[in-house]
Specification:
single chain, mainly alpha, Tetracycline Repressor, domain 2, 10 helices, about 70% helix
Length: about 200
Amino acid sequence: MDYQQKIIEEASVMFRTYGIRAVTMDMLASSLGISKRTIYEVFSDKDELLKGVLKWMSQKQSEVMTKIFSESENVIEAIFKMLDLMSDHFQKMSPAFLMDIKRFHKGLADYPADVHDLPYYSNNSEILTRGIKEGVFRDDINIEITNKCLLEVVRMSNDNEVFPPDNFLNKDVIRNFYINYLRGISTQKGLDLINFYEKK
């Protein structure tokens, strides 16, 4: 039995549901029906376990994104599917999960580098390149600069001081930022597709 994978998957569910601080190794062991000693034989401490969880989450989300983009008719359709998926992701995730990473695990917040952005945005360069080829994004944009701007837009939308969670839904902030930024780099064809998918 692959205890490492089993532990990571269960810890991922519990962390996202209750937050990292609220989940103890005893709780995790009880949920898995194994001893706490078994967990410590695989992971030396909670931080190492969290690294494993974040890496696994990043890999899973990357696989989902690859599937979405390969099955979409155009890049704009793929982006809207991505945003819908992200919205569902945020609704199912306890706000305590991201808050715990930011407040108590700052050293891990960049592991992997795109995790705290919930790596829907790690492949922006591919999105932009495909969009240019499809004629939905302008061909005069600088992909590297635009990609960095999009990542900063997402980081800013995750800033609780700028957008307090009690007043703003994270999914709404990101969607508004992201779509309006895309409008600025879109051709008329791209704008027409954005308008089409926004009405669906």
